[in-house]
Amino acid sequence: MRRVARPDYVCILMRAGPVIPWSSLPTIQCYTERRVKIGASALLLVATTLVGCAPSSRGTSDLIGSETKTLDAGGVGTKGPGCTGAPDCGGCADCASMCWCLTQNGGACLQRCQSLAPPPPPPPIPTEPVTLQMAAFDVAPGAEAFMCQSFTNPFQQDVAILTSESFMTEGSHHFFAFHLQGVTDMPLAACGGLDFHPYIHSAQVPHLKTTYPAGVGRFLPGKDGVEILSHYLNTTSDMIHADVRLVLTVVDPSTVPIQASDVFMNNLSLSIPPMARTTASKSCAVGSDIKLLQAASHMHQRGVHFTAKTDDGTVLYQTDSWSEPTPKLFDPPLSIPGGTNITWSCDYDNPTNTTFTFGQSAVTNEMCIFTGIYFPAPDGAGIECLF
Q1: Who has greater pLDDT, 31 or 331?
Q2: In degrees to the nearest 10, what's the CA dihedral of 309, 312, 313, 317?
């Protein structure tokens, strides 16, 4: 048998005898069969058969099979020679020793000290891109679908996103990657198109890659999972086999001093009258100096023109397309002073006898939204105006 110096064990004999924290004795010897890790400074050795547990004149040792390990008395984070008696329990610095001193209940101590053990450290932040892939789904000709799938945070810690890249089979109307606290892996399921939460990526075109400038990134908290919402409208005569995924490249957030976030200005009070051409406009003030990195619009089938501009007439975005509008990228980013009003307007042509109001369907409802990405974003907060 070989002897190995180990100062970091607690001996607890569970079934055949008393529970003894070795640090409360100068030396002990015990026979065990199983180990349970409870933290960085203690390992519970659980005996299923007690052969002996008594003071030894040559140090503390536990026999596991044919291997004897010599343990330094007074270890396991204790002060001085070990614990004093209850109720003071002086020097019982580790969970197991303190618990045994106070309660003499081995089973309860094992359960308590395991529950108090610190979580394992997060894995290293990956240096390669990470992909979140939705399960495949089909959209029949003429059909409209809202599909969601949730993912456990693949990084398990706070990260800064340097690039986000989405891929969607053609026929998509929009894509959101929300981040929500406590979200874990959930299967693909039908969902609502009006769900809205803080997000790390959005898109309306089959392929969109957002790259943040040096020193800027989108923040993803480690406590938050990711939920992807994909909206499809199949205006063709063929089945769409949707393939939707998000690719993220991230780094340690301490290396990225400036956070970016979303601009999301939404006109909720739409009412598009029948048999008419109309315009709906809203304005929203920017509270502080910002730099605009990306801009886009969002409309439904009766939208024929969109414009977003500032007080001084600077056009931020315009398009005649309601379906898959291409976002505008600002390189260098566009500076907008604090207090500036952004006015966004949507022109509609409604040749039907129906009045269309705000809603999720690209067929039976309308929308008028200005979206973008800006920085610096204090604490990662978005600029959101909902009227």
Answers
A1: 331
A2: -30
Q: Rounded to whole angstroms, how far apart are CA atoms 191 and 76?
A: 52
Report the pLDDT averaged over residues 134-155.
Answer: 97
95-103 and 106-115 helices, crossing angle to 10°? 150
Residue 76 has pLDDT above 80, yes or no: no
Beta bridge partners of 259: 217
Contact 147, 193 (CB under 8 A): no
- Nearest CA among 188, 194, 202 for reference residue 147: 188
pLDDT of residue 227: 98
Backbone angles phi, psi at 186, to 5 degrees: -140, 145
Predicted local distance difference test score (pLDDT) of residue 23: 42
Spatial separation of the C-alpha atoms in residues 224 and 292, rounded to whole Å: 26
Is 322 in contact with 300 (CB distance < 8 Å)? yes
Distances, alpha carbon 139 to alpha carbons 94, 134, 235, 253, 322, in Å: 59, 14, 10, 39, 20
- Residue 290: name the closest of 166, 214, 386, 383 by CA: 383
The percentage of residues in the chain with a pLDDT greater than 90, rounded to a whole number, is: 67
Residue at 166: amino acid letter:
S
Structure tokens at 82: 């070990």
Q: Would you say 169 and 242 are in contact if contact means Cβ atoms under 8 Å apart?
A: yes
| Contact residues for 128 (Cβ-Cβ < 8 A; gap 6+) | none
E strands, 182-223, where? 186-190, 199-203, 207-211, 216-220
CA distance 193 to 146: 6
> What are 208's two structure tokens?
């969109």
More confident residue, 20 or 193: 193
Q: How wide is the angle at C-alpha 231 spanned by C-alphas 301 and 205, nearest 5°?
A: 75
Nearest residue to 212 (alpha-carbon basis) of 250, 244, 264, 178: 250
Per DSSP bridges, beta strands 137-139 and 240-242 are antiparallel
Cβ–Cβ < 8 Å for 285, 340? yes
> What digits encode the pLDDT tens for the residues 156-203?
999 999 999 999 999 999 999 999 999 999 999 999 999 899 999 999
Please give the average per-residue pLDDT across 363-369, as a whole number.
Answer: 97
User: Could you tell me whether strands 356-357 and 341-350 are parallel, antiparallel, or unpaired per DSSP bridges?
Assistant: unpaired
Q: Are the C-beta atoms of 161 and 252 separated by less than 8 Å? A: no
